[in-house]
Amino acid sequence: MLVRIKRGWEMPERLATPESVNADRRRLVQAMALAPLLAAAGPLLRPARAAAEEADPSRLLYPVKRNDAFALDRPLTDEQLVTTYNNFYEFGSHKRISQIAQRLPIRPWTVRIDGMVEQEREIGVDDLLKAMSLEERLYRHRCVEAWSMAVPWSGFPLKALVEFAQPSAGAKYLKMTSFQDEDVAPGQKAVWYPWPYVEGLTIEEATNELAFIGTGLYGKPMPKQNGAPLRLVTPWKYGFKSVKSVVAFTFTDEMPKTFWWEIAPDEYGFWANVNPKVDHPRWSQASERPLGSDERVPTLPFNGYEAQVAHLYKGLEASEGDRLYR
Ligand code: MTE
Fold first, then answer.
1. Which residues form the domain of 115?
2. pTM of the predicted structure, to 2 decimals
């Protein structure tokens, strides 16, 4: 069901000062009578001002140089589709969350780096962006729901963040945690979900050349609905691994219990590598529907990135079996 949700800054029409208010004295008096109403509308107007002040300071960094080593064999998906057909359960369990996600304040945004590291620290996202070298990569994205897209992400290799964090030798996993604020994200009022959204990778996965932190999309800063100000991008895994709006990177020696794994362990797990031969318990994973098309195309092992990542799982097949692909 499509629900039209009024944004905080949308002032009801009845509270707006009429354009012709100065035309005659009688109207001016009417306007004065409106004053208390306008004062009462202050809190409604404030978010609009906040939004203007918040204008993403990283916008001048984009577009960034494309790294041609990460090219595609298919056309890019239409930007409009990518930014209006989203999964972001914090804002609703349907796809049309792009409007309500604008509520998410993305400045100031502090990232915590903690757990098994040389020194735990906090860093503002703009300082982090300054410390990283940004580039654009064209990647496929395959959702576990069997739709897919092809998009130009801007961002930096996750490996650079791991090096920046200086994990201790015993760290085996990187856990990434999304924001938590049920005042801006109504979905987080649903107590049956284990908020905040958490995802994780092994250190070997996190330092693989494909693992990427997305900070922008289509040559612009990351839209809020796509996970601003920074999100994970792991194109060989199902899309639910790519946790949005990350506030913490935690190094640990324990496999993190991830969001969907905790909710439905029979359907989703930690690894979530794309595999057309291992079906979801409720549907086939053999093919996918590219957004914007009605046709289905075959799904590729590791979503087409087998050469770059298959070695990460050698030897694990025996112990993990199909769990590597859920
Ligand atoms: N991250 C958070 N915090 N919350 C979510 O609900 N959904 C995941 C992933 N990251 C999700 C999330 C799923 S299921 C997918 S397919 C992708 O985000 C969708 O990313 P997109 O909206 O940019 O296409």
1. 13-320
2. 0.85
Regarding the beta carbon of 239 and ligand 1, being less than 6 Å apart is answered yes
- Torsion, CA 79, CA 84, CA 85, CA 91, rounded to 10: 140
Question: Does some domain include residue 183?
Answer: yes
Q: How many domains, in total, are found in the chain?
A: 1
Query: In ligand 1, which atom is closest to the CA atom of 89?
Result: 6
List, as own/partner pairs, every contact residues 181-190 make where C-beta atoms lie below 8 angstroms and the sequence separation is at least 24, other chains included: 184/103, 184/104, 184/105, 185/90, 185/91, 185/103, 185/104, 186/91, 186/92, 186/100, 187/88, 187/89, 187/90, 187/91, 187/92, 187/93, 188/90, 190/93
Give residue-wise pLDDT tens across range 158-214.
999 999 999 999 999 999 999 999 999 999 999 999 999 999 999 999 999 999 999
| CATH number of the CATH domain containing 254 | 3.90.420.10
In this structure, the residue with its CA closest to atom 13 of ligand 1 is: 240
Residue 229 lies in a domain: yes
